[in-house]
Amino acid sequence: MQMSSTHAADTEYLVRQAANSGYQWSSLLAPPAYMAYVVARRGRTSLSLNKVLRATWVGGLGGSVAAGSVAYARYAYSGEDTVRVRRIKAAYNTDALRRNDHATIGGVVVGALTPAILWKRGAALNLILGGFGIGNAFGLLTHYGRAVSGDPAPKIDIALPGAHPEVETPPS
């Protein structure tokens, strides 16, 4: 399928956003799911920090690939105008921007602290990448905690191309 350069750029942007969200949600859900699975199947003695950290970053990677693939299939075969409007909405979505910021900050901080604190407890790769995944999940929870506690992201009104403002009816 031949895409125009703008459609390809819009699709790429939306796929990156979806992959980022997939990583965030999978990093949040993978550790508890893995721990529940291991405890139920093999008992508590089979659970280790190294394995939980590995499950966190592998689960995050899997969620990123899955969400990015679904987004590509969705947007690559959608109309160019539809994808353009969706990209503009995504670019000005302050809630998603703030969620990504919190997740990135949490990932960097915990990704750096995990190996420093737990160096002898696991493989370096699992400590760094797993710490980043857990920090990403903490950032995601921080974002939603702020939104629930009364500090939501500000809304931005944008004029979308091709959208017609509703005509106001004069009072009778």
Q: How does the helix and strand content classify structurally?
A: mainly alpha
Oligomer: single chain
Beta-sheet strand percentage? under 5%
Radius of gyration over all CA atoms, rounded: 20 Å
- Based on DSSP secondary structure assignment, what is the total number of beta strands? 0
What does this structure look like?
It contains five helices and no strands. The chain has 172 residues and is mainly alpha-helical. The chain has one domain (5-148). The protein is globular and about 60 Å long.
Which key terms come to mind for this protein?
mainly alpha, 172 residues
Topology:
Elements: H1 5-42, H2 49-76, H3 80-91, H4 94-117, H5 124-148
